[in-house]
Amino acid sequence: MAIFSQEIYKVVTIGLNTLESSQASGKTPRNPVSEAHYLNAWVTKSIKQQSFDRSVVKTLMMWQQQGRSMGKNAQLKLNFECLAETFSGVVNAEGKEKRVTQATLQAFYAALEHADWLITTEFEVNRKVTHFTDGQASLVVCSKQYQNAFDEQGELVKPLSLYVRGNIQPFIDLAFASGLLLFKVTDYKSKVKYHGEFVIYPANNGEHLPELPTRNL
């Protein structure tokens, strides 16, 4: 099976390129309704022809259903553009993912601390725990899981959970600026009371779509 991040990046870039080609040739008008119709049909055709690896089939089927039920309100073009921009930030020129290292995570911690987040990394999270922050935005990382997640060279080799309480979108944006993609498990209930759970993966390669950073329009 292909690597999800590489394959979904291929999907959205090919989809946007074929749409642009169709518009440049005059076959598809440049308006939201026509663009939605084109991409809806393109996604369906891609599924039927098995154009992409099976790692992205569930995502394609989700987009197909959204396109059918919501039409232009599914905003497939916007979604494709956001994903293309997001993945281009964590995929290098050869189409491979950039490594995630301890230095990557430490840079993220520093950015969060600069934004007045409380970072707690010295305890194990092996059961339901309560973490009091007096309203301060909070990130908790299990010390044992962190230790086991990195190899001797300091590269992330296993998924690592981040327990989060605070304004999530700035958290996502700071992670992305530090070279990390976040994959949501839960918004709220997790092993750490009142904290949601997000996961970072080796080379940012989760098995589903990541949380998207704010676009720089």
Secondary structure topology:
Elements: H1 4-24, H2 32-48, H3 57-70, H4 76-88, H5 102-114, E1 118-120, E2 138-140, H6 143-149, E3 160-165, H7 168-177, E4 183-186, E5 196-200
Parallel strand pairs: 1-2
Antiparallel strand pairs: 2-3, 3-5, 4-5
Largest sheet: 5 strands, mixed
What is the tally of helical segments?
7
Mean pLDDT over the full residue set: 89
Q: What is the gyration radius calculated from CA atoms?
A: 19 Å
Which class best fits the helix and strand makeup? alpha+beta
Low-confidence stretches: none
Approximately what portion of the residues adopt beta-strand conformation? 5-15%
* Strand order of the biggest β-sheet: 1-2-3-5-4
Cα distance spanning the termini = 34 Å
Helix share of residues?
Answer: 40-55%
Overall morphology: elongated
DSSP E strands, number: 5
| Strand/helix succession | HHHHHEEHEHEE
Keywords:
single chain; alpha+beta; elongated; 217 residues
